[in-house]
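Researcher: Here's a chain I'd like modeled. Treat it as a single chain, no partners, no ligands.
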Amino acid sequence: MNDLLTIGEVARRSGVASSALRFYEDRGLISSQRAGSGHRRFPRHTLRLIAFIVYAQRVGLSLAEIGEELSKLPSGRAPKGKDWSRLLDRWARRIEERIAELERLKGSLTGCIGCGCLSLENCRLANPEDRAGDRGAGPRFWAVDGQTDK
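Model: Modeled as a single isolated chain. Structure tokens:
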């Protein structure tokens, strides 16, 4: 079995468009070799890297954060189980932080989130005189490390 895949094969196997693969390569997230014809050829383990990229994006990591995490993997060879395990242990903390942030958002949807709008009846109770507005623009009660003024 050939250990190098064409960009079309990688796109088909990963479910990611060829244009996105070129974008990921331009950003240094994945790499390819060039065939004699100049066409891209990707090592088979690139499929795992792409799966990680896609999942990390769905969780909310930026491409810069994803690149930082991928840079911790060995280059020039397929990552082994222990490589992934070390990476995912650190990454799991980020997922937990994201879950907590989403839980805070969910809990704030029915109450005052400190947006400074003063348009809801309970804003007069939860955010008297728009005190959250002194802390800056936006939803201050949940956007700053989950701290509230309530």
